[in-house]
Amino acid sequence: MDETTMNGTEVQEQQALPPYLQKKEKKHTKLGDAFHALWPVLVFLGVQTMAGALGGVYAGFVMARKIVNEGTFDSYDINQIVLEATTAIAMPVLLISSLVSIPLFFYLFKDDEKKRTEGEILKKHAVTPLTLASTFGVFFGLTMVSSVVVSFIPTGAALNTLNSIITDSNRVLSFLAVAILGPISEELLFRGIVYRRLRDCFGIKAAIVGSAVVFGLVHMNGVQTINAMFLGLAFAICYEHTGSLWYSISMHIINNGLTCIVMYNNMLTEQGTILPVAVDAIVGPILLIPCIWLLLKKDSKVNQY
Prior knowledge:
Elements: H1 3-16, H2 30-70, H3 75-115, H4 129-150, H5 156-168, H6 171-202, H7 204-217, H8 222-242, H9 245-264, H10 277-296
Helix pairs in contact: 2-3, 2-6, 3-5, 3-6, 4-8, 4-10, 6-7, 6-8, 6-9, 7-8, 8-9
């Protein structure tokens, strides 16, 4: 029996079945595609929420023990106890959440790659020195522009508390959690899964912007949200033009690692930036514009792989 006859037989058998048993071609909608790209972010937030709940339980235990030992405490004591308890448990909890999420996101990333056709796979390019210089130029340029923007935003209590937690925690644990494991987990999720799925459905430009916006929003405070959006743009551009997550992971580790080192040594300016805002405002665009031009120019040596 030839293939045509077999296909015809299958169609007849399919039509003979009740409607609810007949195979239906899966319909794609924009909303469904967006949810498919973003549901892993809900898992990420769920893991973070559970980790935060553990910290809350620990803080409650510390406060209860203080009541038993001292009989009473004022509102200042409550705030101080919460901060101390959060500082004590934040980095171990962040480490645990990263260790849980990394293998999960790696599995989803690899599973997505298996399901893609050859034309859909983001090919790994033979990265030239010019490509590398351009992508890192975009990264540092966007970082500087971001610093200028966030310098006009009040830091707020949430960011100050986060900075205190990082600087007051064990430095080995905080550096491992914030500068190493955190970037690996987030790059697997936001570039390896979210960006790639958005790219499959909505195209490169929408995926770069969309993944950056989502990456910013999950940081949940004004300064970090804006900064993370700019970084998300740089990381997605880097991933697109190198075809490898290792480059965006390296950028993310460099960014978070430098931030930790600067915070440990109290090297931030009054505006909360590493360099003076005037320097960022001048150097950032000078660095960013030619590097973006090199990456987007189709006949550029950057794009000749």
